[in-house]
């Protein structure tokens, strides 16, 4: 084994960084974010109703039912200046003769004070439904927040 010297070639050191693995990792992360981003949406698209209707110009004043924040109901008849507070049983007895007199043109508008919960408005509409009133509208104030 006299002549068995193995000579190894010395490789020259590279001073470059191999960026291919970093590009692969970046592309994998990009794909993960692209897939998961639409799933993270927590909002719900809501299409709000809009109306171009003008204010009603009726010959006769409507009957107005007012829902108060404490759950009481008020009734303002066409000749009254101020609404009177009534309970649900009185509502039907007061509306029955007016409904009989006006027939199909009988219209009731439901209003509520600004801080009244919407449940009180729905309760007032249920009372009107129980009183066989079919033409019910919501009364709005166009001065404060209308655009």
UniProtKB/TrEMBL annotation:
Organism: Luteimonas marina
Compartment(s) where it occurs, according to its Swiss-Prot or TrEMBL record: Cell membrane
InterPro entries: ExbD
Transmembrane segments: 21-44
Pfam families: ExbD
UniProt keyword Transmembrane, yes or no: yes
Stated family: Belongs to the ExbD/TolR family.
GO biological process entries: protein transport
Protein name: ExbD/TolR family protein
Chief localisation class: membrane
GO CC list: plasma membrane
Single GO MF annotation: transmembrane transporter activity
Membrane-topology descriptor: Single-pass membrane protein; Single-pass type II membrane protein
Keywords from the named record: Cell membrane, Membrane, Protein transport, Transmembrane, Transmembrane helix, Transport
Domain of life (superkingdom): Bacteria
